[in-house]
């Protein structure tokens, strides 16, 4: 890795400098992280082990939960450690690794949500061709392409970060490493790099959001020809997806589609995006999904029966 600066480590200022508040931060986000891990692992295990959940929708849900788990893990453990430490030092390489992970799993979540909306579109608008279009091999190829696109996106972010020269100070007014906080520390004109960031991450968020909204408008329009029961079931599934889309893309667009201007709510918005969303997604997809709840109950009963026989 080529260094083009004299700074080899940064200090994260975190969410607060007050020792008592730092303990509160640790407790709150430890609970969030445990809930995120347990919720997403529960979905991953349920989809993997249940024969009831073999449709493409749950195949993509598996990868959404896997992505949420990795996304949160790339941010939250570091925040927890820093909340109990007075130094909060992160090396240059660790900082770039966090930038890479943040954008890898963030982009993957966008791609998976697009695939889930495409799956719902085909299932509702082209039901007779659904088994042919969304067959297993196609779903696997789509997931591979999503990982590839996410990796390319993350590499592009790292290339932008490597262009930034740092010559002091090294205080990052944030709880994690991302390009926006790093741009403020660079000892050069960052207008062009920020423009590239907006064209990369900003366009990805905005384009994905527009595509998803259009697809759900088409889906809702097509439901006018369905029976009342069919509309109810389709709306129940789509409501969960639309809720996740709005909650995920709102903060993403706010963070990555504006000039490098600091707002008072920046940290709160990014906390909701990086820590809140991965925790909420399992709740949204389980509490509103009867098939998922039934599959979880069945697996629990099988596990309980097996344990009692032993």
From TrEMBL:
Gene Ontology cellular component annotations, sorted alphabetically: plasma membrane
InterPro entries in the cross-refs: GPCR_Rhodpsn, GPCR_Rhodpsn_7TM, Olfact_rcpt, Olfactory_Receptors
Bilayer topology: Multi-pass membrane protein
Cellular compartment(s): Cell membrane; Membrane
Any Pfam family hit: 7tm_4
Keyword annotations from UniProtKB, A to Z: Cell membrane, G-protein coupled receptor, Membrane, Olfaction, Receptor, Sensory transduction, Transducer, Transmembrane, Transmembrane helix
Membrane-crossing residue ranges in chain numbering: 24-45, 57-80, 100-118, 138-162, 201-223, 235-256, 268-287
Ranges where the G-protein coupled receptors family 1 profile domain occurs: 39-285
Functional note: Putative odorant or sperm cell receptor.
Family: Belongs to the G-protein coupled receptor 1 family.
Name of the featured protein: Olfactory receptor
Organism of derivation: Erinaceus europaeus
